[in-house]
Amino acid sequence: MEIRILEKGYKKNPEFYQDFLDDKIADKEEYFSDETVNIQSAPEFPFYIAKKNDEQRKVLFLEAFNTIEKYYLSSDRDLHLDEQFWHSLLILKKRDFLLETYPEIQEGIENFNNIVVKDFDWENYIYKSVLAAEYISDLVTDETERQRYYEIIIDNLDLYNYMIKYEVFRSKQFVFNILTIVDELGISSLLKKKIVGRSDLATDTRIGRQVLFEFNKNYPVIMSPMMAKEELKELFVEYLGYYTSVEQLGALV
Amino acid sequence: MIYKKDANFPYPVLTNTSNSYESGGFTLNVDLKENTDNYRFDIEYEIESDFLKELLFTRKAKLYLVVQSKDNKFFEVDLNTMFIDIPKTRISINNRTSLQMSIQSKEEISFAYNDDINSFFKEFREEIIVSRYAILGFSNTVIFEGSSSRPFDLFERKVNSALSSAIKIELGSETIIIHYRDVDLQFVGLPMSGNFNNPYIYMGLQKALSRFISNYGEDGQVDLHDIDLPTDQLDAKLYRLMKAKMVFELTTETIDEAIYNISDKVIEKYALAVKGLATSGD
Fold first, then answer.
1. What value of ipTM does the predicted structure carry?
2. B226 and B252 housed in the same domain
3. Domain limit, last residue, from B144, B160, B182
4. Considering the domain boundaries, does residue B17 fall inside one?
5. B128 vs B277, which has greater pLDDT?
6. Together in a domain, B83 and B167
7. Interface of A with B (CB under 8 A)
């Protein structure tokens, strides 16, 4: 499949949005750069996942992770981690799918900006899914175990988001190690709890994020991203102890 | 993550900018190469502290290379590591890529016998005990701005209706020139027309590399380590391209392999274009 890459300047552009709705993008040369890319096959998957209950969300994320793993990860990262590639693919090849799956796109440009030409960072569902698929499929070869790890990500999305948001933690090994520790200790729901009685912290602070924040504060004196899992686990429990009782966990470490 | 700030550490840290070590700094040099599937980072470094080198040697500390592009990749390296390969499927160097080395303690380290630190720290070095997993030194940061080198800059296309053949491949002074008798032969207007011209690219490279061998080789082979940068501009481009793509030996036997390595899958792309045309039914 040949995809012409859009020229920058299409984002938050009312005229472009109207041309998308009217299916006129392909007719207007000014929207295109000189670049084209070829990809063997580019099947659709849930490009946008929000406002769903937990069960629906899990199904959609799993579909996204598995589709990306199977069809996109063998391309160069120049492609599958590139904003313009994804936006071009969605606009030029997935218009019907988008309009059918996310009809709210037609209600206004804000929805279009938020669903279709969304900035390609940690808040973008494709970005989240590409990193998840890369990290897990590189490190976990067993198929059942891989699916299990995908589910761990989805069950700990708050923590995962926090890790890929911050440059210091956005690393395959660190993300994998933290997810493994959370799974081994069985503390997924504990980490989601809000911290109470600490007026020195921002309101609505969850334990899991705060533990990661401790890693962040201590970097680079303690270089956590390159630590082995067992080493990291000791520190994790230590930091967790700042915010909750870890006596029972201690026995598990 | 790459550490850029000149932070104050409560103990001596070996860097190129702080003066806590008197013995010197921590210098990293990186050379970036690529082939069809990988980027290769050739590394050369110098740790100017015998104390830290001894810690590495006795495994009380470890040495890491951090490669930061869209995310961070950590590699444990040892004194024998000459390069790190990263597949193109897992790193993009279109945007800035930064590399840095660092030394991390693996156990509690006493600085009591560290003779490399400055006189200020030496005064109380018996009391300096650094916890495990702590940073002991970090190198300068090596930065690669986005790369734009494209092998096709080697080529020019021209249309010449007076041509006595349908196409003609000429080795020009700076480029390989593909002359077409008719503009239609460039497949203009077909989807992926660029890729339909790839067989001509292939033929052009074959012709140019054959001449390269006859210009610089002995007995039909060239070792790129043995020759200087050619003064002929086209040959110079080929020379740089081959070195960048880690093709160091070129013989009449290995021309096809060399083309594969320097040309970013021209034939695969051609095949994909043909298949695309076949399935779209045009």
1. 0.89
2. yes
3. B144
4. no
5. B128
6. no
7. 1-2, 36, 38, 40, 73-78, 80-82, 131, 134, 138, 167-168, 170-174, 219-227, 231, 235
- Residue ranges of the domains in chain A? 1-155, 173-253
- CA separation for the pair B99, B73 (Å, rounded): 10
| B119 within a domain of the structure (yes/no) | yes
* B52/B29 Cα distance (integer angstroms): 19
Q: Which residues of B touch A168 (CB under 8 A)?
A: 1, 72
B215 vs chain A: nearest CA distance in angstroms? 35
B199 located within any domain = yes
Q: Which residue has the higher pLDDT, B219 or B46?
A: B46
- Residues B161, B138 share a domain: no
Question: What is the Cα A184 distance to its own chain's centre?
Answer: 22
In a domain, B266, yes or no: yes
Query: CA-nearest residue of chain A to B5?
Result: A220
Pairwise CA distance, residues B220 & B215, whole Å:
10
Mean pLDDT of chain B: 87
Residues B186, B100: one domain? no
Q: B186 and B135 in one domain?
A: no
CATH of the domain at B52: 2.60.40.10
* pLDDT at residue number B149: 44
Backbone angles phi, psi at B277, to 5 degrees: -65, -40
Nearest to A74 among B3, B89, B192 (CB): B89
CA–CA dist A117, A91 (Å, integer): 8
Answer yes or no: do B79 and B41 share one domain.
yes
8 Å CB contact between A122 and A164? yes
Q: Do residues A88 and A117 touch, judged by C-beta distance below 8 A?
A: no
Of A81, A170, A221, the CB nearest to B9: A221
The pLDDT confidence band at residue B232, using thresholds 50, 70 and 90, is confident
Distance CA A36, CA A81 (A): 16
A-chain residues within 8 Å CB-CB of B104? 223, 226
Share of chain B above pLDDT 90, in %: 48
Domain interval for residue B81:
26-144
- Residues of chain A short of pLDDT 70, as ranges, are 203-204, 248-253
Over residues B182-196, the mean pLDDT reads 75
> Does residue B282 surpass a pLDDT of 50?
no
Q: How many CB atoms lie within 10 A of CB A213?
A: 15
Residues of chain A neighbouring B66 (CB-CB closer than 8 A) = 226
Higher confidence at residue B216 or residue A176?
Answer: A176
